[in-house]
Amino acid sequence: MDASLTLSLSHTNSETQDLIGSYFLDQWRLKSKSAAAKSESVAEAEKTQLMEVEESEDEKEELPTELDTLNSSGGFSIVGPDKLSVHYPNVNLHGHDVGVVQANRPAPCKRLVYYFEISVKNAGAKGQIAIGFTSPGFKLRRQPGWDPNSYGYHGDDGLLYHGQGKGEAFGPTYSTGDTVGGGINYASQELFFTKNGTIVGTVFKDVKGPLFPTVAVHSQNEEVTINFGKDPFVFDLKAYEAQERTKQHSTIEKLSIPQNASYGIVRSYLQHYGYEDTLRMFDIESKSTLPPISFIQENGFTEDMNMYSLNQRKVLRQLIRSGEIGDAFGKLREWYPQIVQDGTSAICFLLHCQNFIELVRAGKLEEAVLYGRTEFEKFYKLGDYDDLVKDCAALLAYEQPQKSSVGYLLGDSQREVVADAVNAMILSTNPSLKDSKDCLHSCLERLLRQLNACFLEKRSLNGDQGLEN
């Protein structure tokens, strides 16, 4: 082979190993920081965790609780002392003499549905009451729906107004004694309005960003009270939410996914991590229902590439998960000497640390001290590993290290980090590999990451509104 080509391949392999090593060291550091933070205040952490369990995502958002009395529409509306009632005391002389009041907070968006109601105590001279949603900074002398970024269902004509002075046919009129509600369905991206417990219509929600529950009065003696959920609603909100969830589930169930798609994804996962025995049983059980398929990604990562060194990767994973690090080192030197020939590489560091941890786990503390002095000194001098060396060494400082801030090192999850790192390093030696990042995650994990990214992007396009994942 040409000398320059050999040098280039060697440089590429070194970069790949550095990338993989750095990734798994960072995974370890994340665990270390999490464990340290928990150790600093266990009681506080447990309290916080309990609160998180008790509080749903809905409750974490600040909800509208009363009317905003700071922003005023002049003397055209008077909010009652309870901040849940408003009336129009004077005779209106102009079209813009509207008494508009927003809620003290915008409608929460991390939920399936938001809803509130008003009860008409007095329709006044003209019954020009409106319920709706308006954006921040909405002019409080204009009916909701008359200006852009607002919606209003009006009582005197039953029309829906959305961003212009001309309304469209929508629902019945409403007057004294009626209860009218307004809601946002984040799943369907629609606003809906109700009268006396029945939905009268919906409109597509094309406004991004927060929307405030809003009520307007516009003729003498008009008076309404507002219910933000403190009292039971006339509209059966729980039944509506259940119905909407059923619709969502029905839509999802109607999606047609090839039967062998999940088979291929699960199979590639087992291949990627070297679970050869499980893969064999999976294939045997699947033959009765599915024919074997070749799972090929658009980037060309074929089944043959997933099968690369499958048996050797299985053996090494089993050795590491059993704590037999010395034997794992021996197999690597025999099968993949290029991975461990640099005694100061990240993969060598991970293996030496795990060997030290296994000695502590077995209670061989004197042997662990001698091993640490021999192997850790060269890594400690490099500087890139000193924090993790300290974590390992700290195991010796505790009578019961498993209960300490570094006790996480004695768990099976730390063995898995090392096993995954070795597995990725072996995959990186495949001459057919096109992208070194393919070594880090299985197809299934990349799919889940992509789904999460798509969800976050969808939320972003919707002004960060909608359901949490």
UniProtKB/TrEMBL annotation:
* B30.2/SPRY domain span: 45-233
Region named Disordered: 36-63
Q: Superkingdom of the source?
A: Eukaryota
Q: Where is each CTLH domain found?
A: 309-367
Q: Which residues form the signal peptide?
A: none
Entry-linked Pfam families: CTLH (PF10607), SPRY (PF00622)
CDD domains assigned: SPRY_RanBP_like (cd12885)
Compositional bias (Acidic residues) at which positions?
52-63
Can you say what this protein is called? Answer: Ran-binding protein 10 isoform X2
Provide the organism lineage as a comma list. Eukaryota, Viridiplantae, Streptophyta, Embryophyta, Tracheophyta
